Amino acid sequence: MNFELTEEQNLIREMVRGFAEAEVAPSATQRDEDEHFDRDLMFARLADLGLTGIVFPEEYGGAGADYLSYAIAVEELSRVCASTGVTLSAHLSLGSNPIYLFGTERQKKQFLTPLAQGEAMGAFGLTEPSAGSDAGGTRTFAVRDGNDWIVNGSKIFITNAGEAEIYVIFARTDKAAEKHHGISAFIVEKGTPGFTFGKKEKKMGIRSSPTMELVFENCRIPHENMLGEEGKGFKVAMKTLDGGRIGIASQALGIAQGALDATTTYVKERQQFNKPLNAFQGVQFQLADMATQVEAARLLVYNAAYRASAGLSYSQESAMAKLFASETAMRVTTQAVQLHGGYGYTREFPVERMMRDAKITEIYEGTSEIQRIVIGAALTR
Amino acid sequence: MKLLVCIKQVPDMESKFKVGAEGLWYDRHDLAWLMNEYDEYGVEQAVQLKEQTGADLTVLSIGPEQVKETIKKALAMGCDRGVHIVDDQAHLKDPFEIASMIAEFAGDKGFDLIFTGMQSQDRGSAQVGVMVAELLTIAAVTTVVDFAFVDGQVTVKRELEGGVKAKVASKLPVLITCQLGLNAPRYPTLPNIMKAKKKEMLSLPATDLRKAAALQETMKIEFPAKRSGGLFLEGEVASIADRLIRILKEKTTVLA
C-alpha cells in the first residue's frame, strides 16, 4: 500500500495551488458578494491549464490523467473558492463524464471533445420539483416523433445552467413504466428551440456559481442525441453520480482545508489576555481535532479516487468519502468561525463564506442521508 | 541553436527551518520542495527563446533523486530533455564544485546560450552562474530583467542599484543570470505535466564527473539572535516627535 503521490500528482497540486492562490483567491470574496460568475477566470483559464478534461483520454481532448489528479485539482480550487471548484466538478463529473461512459463514438467526438478541451461547458439536469433524491419521480417527459424526441418539463437547481453549452438531461420516455424505469438520458445543446432557462437561484453559499432552472417546451432532441439505451437513463444517472461524489467530496475537502489554513494563521496572530490564541491549550485541541478530521477525509477521498482510476468498484467508497468530507467541511468551517470569534462572523474574513459554502456539500449530488442509504444498502445486500 | 537552463530545487521558503545535525546546513527533513524562483525565470526565458527560434532546450539539475520532480516541472513548462546529475551531497558542496560539474557536463555540448537564476533562494551565493561561464570561457551577463534575441545577438537589460538599468549586447555563446521581473513564468499545464514523463531524462552519477576541490567551506550556520523588542517612546507628543525624527535621521535613511 502506497500513500505517496506521484511526481505528476505533486506537480499538478503545485500548479493548481499556484493558479488558485494567484488568480482565483483575490476575487473570491467579491464574486460571492456580487453573485458573479466570471467565466474567463472560472472556466476559460481552467481550460488553458488543461483542467477541463483531466481524466479523459487524449484522443477526446483530455489530459489522460487519473481521478486522483482530478480530486487534487478540485480540492485546490475549492480551498480558495468553492464556487470555482464546483464549476469544474459539475462540468467534468456531471456534464462530461456520462458522455464518456455511455456515449457513442460520434457523441464523444461531437460533444466530449469540446467539453474536455474547455471549448464548451457541461451541465447535468436530473433534479425536478418532484424528483430530487428520488429520481423515480421524474415528470419531464419525452415523446417519440419520427427521428426526434419531443421533451416537456423542467429541471431545477442545475449547476452551471445558463453558462453551459452542453447538457445531459433525463426524461421519462415510457409513460407506463414506474419509478426509475422508463427514464432515458439525452444530450441537449444550449440554443435548441424549446430549451430555455428559468429563474436563477439566490443561494446561501457557492454564490458565484450559477444555479438555474432548465425549461423544456416542446423541445425537439434528435434520437441520435439519446445517451445510452432507451429506458436505461437511471443507470446513466447513478453511474454518473458515483463519480460526481468524488468531485463534491474533493470540493468539501478543499473547503475544510481552506478553513483550517485560515484559522491556523489567525490564531497565531490574534492576541487575547496578552498571548496569542494558539498559546491556549483549548485552542490547540480544537485545531488538532479539525486537522485530524481533514486528514481522515482526505484519505477517504483519495482512496475513492484511486479505486475509480484502478477500475475497482467505488460506489460505496465514494459515498463514504462524500458523506464524511462534507460533514467534516461543515464541522471544520463552523469551528473556524468560532475560533475567529466576532471577526469570523463578518465578511472581512473568508471563513464565514467557507461555512456557507460547506453546507451545500451535505445536500447536492446525494444528501448525507442518501449517502448513508447507499452505504447501508451495500453493507446489507 | 542549443540552449541549457540550470535549475535548483530549494525548500518552500514558507517552511519552518531547523539547523541540521552537523550545523553546516538546514535540516532537509519534512520540507516541501520547489523550483528556485530565479531559475523559473530562466526556464521561462529559455522556453520563450525555444518557441521563437525552434532551439533545442536541455534542463539540468544537481541533487538527490527527489530533484527529478523539479526537472519534470521544467519539462512540463517546455524543455525538451532533462539531465539529472545524481548527487546526494550536493547541498554541502560549494559554488565552485557545483559550477565545475555543470561546466564539465556542458563543456563538449556546444550550448549557445545558458540560463541560470541570479542566485538560489537557499544558499544565495550568486556565484554558480558566473563561475560556469568562466570555466567555459564564455561571456556572462548577470541580473537580467529584460531579454531579446535578434539577428543572432542577445540584447538584455541588467538591473543596477537604485533601479538604474544597463543595456548590454552580447554575441553567442553567453550565459545569462535571471532576476525577478524578467518574465512571468507560465504554469505547466496539466496535459504537459502528463507528457513530461515521456520526455528524455538522462541520469548522470556525480561520481562520473571529475571532482573539483571546494574553494570555500561553510563553518557553521545558525539563526540570528532574537531581536530585542521595539523601542517605545513615551512622554509629551512634541518631545516624542523630536526624538523620533532624530532616531530616523541617525539610524535610518528614511529622512536624509
Write the layout of secondary structure elements.
The complex is a heterodimer of chains A (381) and B (256).
Chain A: H1 7-24, H2 28-34, H3 39-48, H4 67-80, H5 82-102, H6 105-117, E1 122-125, E2 141-145, E3 148-159, E4 166-172, E5 183-189, E6 195-200, E7 211-222, E8 226-227, H7 233-269, E9 271-272, E10 275-276, H8 281-310, H9 315-340, H10 351-361, H11 368-380
Parallel strand pairs in A: 1-4
Antiparallel strand pairs in A: 2-3, 3-7, 4-5, 5-8, 6-7, 9-10
Helix pairs in contact in A: 1-4, 4-5, 4-7, 4-8, 5-6, 5-7, 7-8, 7-9, 7-10, 8-9, 9-10, 9-11
Chain B: E1 2-7, E2 9-11, E3 33-35, H1 37-53, E4 56-63, H2 67-77, E5 81-86, H3 95-106, E6 113-117, H4 128-136, E7 139-150, E8 153-159, E9 165-171, E10 174-178, H5 190-196, E11 200-205, H6 237-251
Defining key terms:
heterodimer, A: 381 residues, alpha+beta, Butyryl-Coa Dehydrogenase, subunit A, domain 1, Butyryl-CoA Dehydrogenase, subunit A, domain 2, Butyryl-CoA Dehydrogenase, subunit A, domain 3, 3 domains, four-stranded mixed sheet, four-stranded antiparallel sheet, 11 helices, 10 strands, 15% strand, globular, B: 256 residues, alpha/beta, Rossmann fold, nine-stranded mixed sheet, two-stranded antiparallel sheet, 11 strands, 27% strand
Question: Can you walk me through this structure?
Answer:
The complex is a heterodimer of chains A (381) and B (256). Chain A is of the alpha+beta class. Chain A has 3 domains: 7-121, Acyl-CoA dehydrogenase/oxidase, N-terminal domain (Butyryl-Coa Dehydrogenase, subunit A, domain 1, Orthogonal Bundle), CATH 1.10.540.10; 123-231, Butyryl-CoA Dehydrogenase, subunit A, domain 2 (Beta Barrel), CATH 2.40.110.10; 235-380, Butyryl-CoA Dehydrogenase, subunit A, domain 3 (Up-down Bundle). Chain A has 11 helices and 10 strands. Chain A has helices at residues 7-24, 28-34, 39-48, 67-80, 82-102, 105-117, 233-269, 281-310, 315-340, 351-361, 368-380; strands at residues 122-125, 141-145, 148-159, 166-172, 183-189, 195-200, 211-222, 226-227, 271-272, 275-276. In chain A, the strands form 3 sheets. In chain A, strands 1-4-5-8 form a 4-stranded mixed beta sheet. In chain A, 55% of the residues are buried. The mean pLDDT of chain A is 95. Helix content of chain B is 28%, strand content 27%. Chain B has a 9-stranded mixed beta sheet with strand order 9-8-7-10-6-1-4-5-11, with helices on both faces. A two-stranded antiparallel ribbon of chain B has the order 2-3. Chain B is built from 6 helices and 11 strands. Chain B is an alpha/beta fold and 256 residues long. The radius of gyration of chain B is 22 Å and the shape is globular. The mean pLDDT of chain B is 94. Chain B has a single domain (2-208), classed as 3-Layer(aba) Sandwich (Rossmann fold), CATH 3.40.50. Classes of the chains: A alpha+beta (381), B alpha/beta (256). The interface between A and B is medium-sized, with 20 and 16 residues.
